[in-house]
Structures are given as structure tokens and as C-alpha cells.
Specification:
alpha/beta; Rossmann fold; five-stranded parallel sheet; two-stranded antiparallel sheet; 33% helix
């Protein structure tokens, strides 16, 4: 009897795009996310296999000059440390650039480029990839991977905060998958996380207090 073929699955997470989708008072809790657990749940549902590799692309606010709101520097440190301790994920970083024309007074640069480059360069190592992003700029990348290289690409999008992404009927390996709020709730990091190196207790309540009531005006 021939061996059952195992689908090799990778997951690529656009951290800034995800955060923008949940950056409102009632949904911010979903941003305290164990992305390894989420990627595994999505991969198991579609392919019956856990993700072999999870990559998270985002840029921490690591310097005071890029802090827009009080406490943002500490909030960024808390989040990325919590993600590393529980999910084992280190961000693949872009860079921040000051921009007076932006509502946030800064822009994240290069993280999305790193994501595209990695999806292409990693392609020989996976059969299917989960792309957690609603950014339509990735459409040419998906066409290349699914249409030309024969990879199954599943665009995973949030139940609220992101539009239902379009696929291409002419590319059957270009798929989409909904991420429900109930799944996000099930994949939250613990509210209290002990740092094994320092003994510090990293708390969701502290992160939330640092955030305060600062949300985009359109989402209040």
C-alpha cells in the first residue's frame, strides 16, 4: 500500500495587517494571539496537518523617537516578549519611518517585502501556505505561487475588520479561509505569562492599561 502523502504547510503572518483589523475596543483582546496555535488550528482544519513553520512579520516600536502615544514602547516590548515565550516566535522585522502625512505619523516599511521574499524562497520546502493577510498587494505573489509554481495558497481573513478577499477562479489552488472570532478567542495567549529568564510576569491587563482608550477614531 503506498504511503499517505503528507502536506507540508507553512504559515506567513502579516502582523501589522492583523493588528489593524482588531484595533478597536471590543476586538483588541484577539490581538493577544498565540499565532503558532492559530496557524496549527487553521492548517489542521484544511489539511489535517499542523504547520511545519510559522513566520511572523512585524516591526516593534523599539526606539523612543518612533513612539506616538505614551506607553507604546513598553507595550511593544510586552507583546513581542509574550509571543516569544509562549509561541516561540521572533518577528521578522521591517523598519519604521517617520511620515507626517500618515495618521500614525510613521509607516512600517519592508516587512511586507520580507514576507513576499520568504514565501517565494521557501516555496521548495512547502506544498501549501497559509497567508494571514487581507493586503491586496500580495495578489501578484499569490498568482506566482499558486498559478505558476502549483502551491496551494490559502488566504486567511478575519470575520470582522477585513473584507472577504477575492480569489481568481482561473487559479484553483488560490483559496481562502475564514478566521472566526471563536477561533481567535480559543487561540489567545494566557492573560499572565511568566518570563523564565527574568521571572517577570507579563500581564494582558498591563498591556491593555498602556493602550488606554487610544483607537482610530473611525472605530470608536
Amino acid at each position: 500500500m503506498p504511503a499517505t502523502r503528507v502536506t507540508r504547510v507553512h504559515a506567513y503572518i502579516d502582523g501589522w495587517n492583523f493588528y489593524c483589523a482588531i484595533n478597536e475596543p471590543r476586538r483588541l483582546r484577539y490581538g493577544w494571539c498565540d499565532f503558532t496555535k492559530l496557524a496549527d488550528a487553521l492548517s489542521l482544519k484544511r489539511f489535517g496537518e499542523k504547520a511545519r513553520l510559522v513566520k511572523y512579520f512585524n516591526t516593534p516600536v523599539a526606539e523612543k523617537e518612533y513612539e506616538i502615544n505614551e506607553g507604546e514602547l513598553e507595550r511593544s516590548r510586552i507583546w513581542f516578549r509574550a509571543l516569544k515565550i509562549v509561541a516561540g516566535i521572533q518577528p521578522i522585522r521591517g523598519r519604521l519611518k517617520k511620515d507626517s502625512t500618515s495618521i500614525t505619523k510613521r509607516r512600517e516599511k519592508e516587512a511586507d517585502v520580507h514576507l513576499a521574499v520568504d514565501m517565494l524562497s521557501d516555496a521548495p520546502q512547502y506544498d501549501a501556505a497559509l497567508l494571514l493577510s487581507a493586503d491586496t498587494d500580495f495578489r501578484p505573489l499569490i498568482r506566482k505561487l499558486a498559478g505558476c509554481l502549483g502551491k496551494t495558497i490559502v488566504v486567511c481573513y478575519l470575520e470582522k475588520g477585513q473584507g472577504n478577499p477575492e480569489t481568481d477562479p482561473g487559479i484553483p489552488k488560490w483559496e481562502k479561509q475564514l478566521i472566526s472570532d471563536s477561533l481567535l478567542e480559543a487561540c489567545r495567549l494566557p492573560n499572565d505569562i511568566r518570563d523564565p529568564q527574568t521571572g517577570e510576569i507579563i500581564r494582558w491587563d498591563h498591556y491593555l492599561a498602556l493602550k488606554g482608550g487610544r483607537f482610530p477614531s473611525s472605530r470608536r
